[in-house]
Amino acid sequence: MSVSQRFLDQIALNRQEYELIVERLGREPNELELGMFGALWSEHCGYKNSRPLLRLLPSEGPFVLTQRGAENAGAVDIGDGLCVVMKIESHNHPSAIEPYQGAATGIGGIVRDVFAMGARPIALLDSLRFGPLNEQRNRYLFEGVVAGIAGYGNCLGIPTVGGEVYFEEAYSQNPLINVMCVGVVAKERLASARATGAGSPLMLVGADTGRDGMHGASGLASRTDPHARYDELRPAVQIGDPFLEKLLMEACLDLAHNHPEWIVGIQDLGAAGLTASSLESAARGGSGLEIDVARVPRREEGMTPYEVMIAESQERMLIIVRKGHEEDVKALFDRWELRSTIIGVVTDDGLARIREGEREVACLPVGMLTEAPQYSRQGVPPAELAELQTFAGDSLLDVGDAASALLRLLSLPTIASKQWVYRQYDHHVLTNTVDGPGGDAAVMRIRGTKKGIALCTDGNGRYCYLDPHAGGAI
């Protein structure tokens, strides 16, 4: 097909990447196939620019139970047969467009990553950056994001116990919204997100699929211009339902803890929707898959295979069922009043075959889809940085009235109390919070043991701007 630059821009692929796809595939992809490449080769899913850097970070140790990138979250052994599962990720651009839903669905997505591994979420944290509050748009974003975090987390019954909030001109109308979830699980109950075993059914559970979240990963989250086409991209922001997620969480934990022999793996549907969840699971397991989009429950009429595969409707999970236990798993989800539907099967040919009934609408190698090109770029410091780095501190004038200067400092939003923020969060639900928000770190007890864990998020944007190496180390 003749692909337009407008469509490539829409799915955040450049012309060179399109030509690379044609070269690797040996043919031109159709619209659905190209949309799947756009989703999985986006920066959000494929880490094209960041993966070479992330590989430089230490990721192994005597207590680390997961390999980097191999599962939905990281797991660390804390003794007594238990492990802590944790993950932090951003939801920046969705929150800049629609702050309440952007932040709320950020919480929903990170919670699903943790309970997909069989861990019960016990704490949420959030690291937030906004522009100065004297600008109306920044205040709107600030209030909406805090309300979204509170609304979703409180409804799930998971305490928000810590985080940080900074206000700087650099984040004006372009907030950074990082959300973290921490869970606990017995080591032997850790669940995997691998799709293995030819013939294993693929079961979609939870909400029906709609058109919300279209191009969320490629068209929105991977954009570099924070202000480009925001009004046009508003439909790319997902819509959350925390009460449905609560049912989904309890049902998946019931399945993983009480009936692990019924399943091969569990994977959440987040960025890039059914495309990413199914293909990444198949890639982890070295398998292929076949999906019939006609079987996917929908809440809107006239949806195309493209829309079904790319949509990022929330509160959905993909269960890789052990063959022969389809009815057992379905009965469990029926008890939790959740819709569950077999939409496909794991194969052993390494291909992703997407059908609509009897018609094949896409056929691509799993490995090709999940192996995005990687770029190692040369960082160039901004010109004004040299002057800032050589600034002489002794050139500052002495403070005439120290008491007045101190009061002015304490009145700055970044330094002032954040009680207005964390009082909106339920930080004592589940009764595990020993020391909640407002201090240097939260302390949580591990129920049934004499152990506790301390949790915090931390980062200093000014340090990292002035000296990225020193700022990261600090």
Detail the topology: elements first, then pairings:
Elements: H1 5-10, H2 15-25, H3 31-40, H4 43-46, H5 51-54, E1 74-79, E2 82-90, H6 92-97, H7 99-115, E3 120-130, H8 136-156, E4 160-167, E5 176-186, E6 201-206, H9 216-221, H10 242-258, E7 263-268, H11 273-285, E8 288-292, H12 305-310, E9 316-321, H13 326-335, E10 340-347, E11 351-356, E12 359-365, H14 366-370, H15 385-389, H16 402-410, H17 419-422, E13 433-435, E14 442-445, E15 452-455, H18 461-466, H19 468-473
Parallel strand pairs: 3-4, 8-11
Antiparallel strand pairs: 1-2, 2-5, 3-5, 6-9, 6-10, 7-9, 8-10, 11-12, 13-14, 14-15
Helix pairs in contact: 7-8, 7-10, 8-10
Q: Please, could you describe this protein's structure?
A:
Strand 14 (442-445) and strand 15 form a beta hairpin. The strands form three sheets. The protein has a seven-stranded mixed beta sheet, sandwiched between helices. A five-stranded mixed beta sheet has the order 1-2-5-3-4. It contains 19 helices and 15 strands. It has two domains: 5-60 and 192-370, PurM-like C-terminal domain (Phosphoribosyl-aminoimidazole Synthetase, Chain A, domain 2), CATH 3.90.650.10; 72-190 and 413-474, PurM-like, N-terminal domain (60s Ribosomal Protein L30, Chain: A, 2-Layer Sandwich), CATH 3.30.1330. The chain is globular, with a radius of gyration of 23 Å. It is an alpha+beta fold. 35% of the residues lie in helices and 21% in strands.
Properties at a glance:
single chain; 474 residues; alpha+beta; Phosphoribosyl-aminoimidazole Synthetase, Chain A, domain 2; 60s Ribosomal Protein L30, Chain: A; 2 domains; seven-stranded mixed beta sheet; five-stranded mixed beta sheet; 19 helices
